[in-house]
Amino acid sequence: MKLNFIGSALAAGLLLSSAGCFSSVDGHHRAGVPFSKDTIESRYERPVGVIFAAAKEVLTFNGTLTSENTINKSLEAKVDTRTVWVRIDEVEPKVSRVVVQARTKSRTSDIDLASEIDKQIALRLK
Question: Which of 11, 82, 94, 126 is the most exposed place for a label (fewest CB within 10 A)?
Answer without folding.
Answer: 126
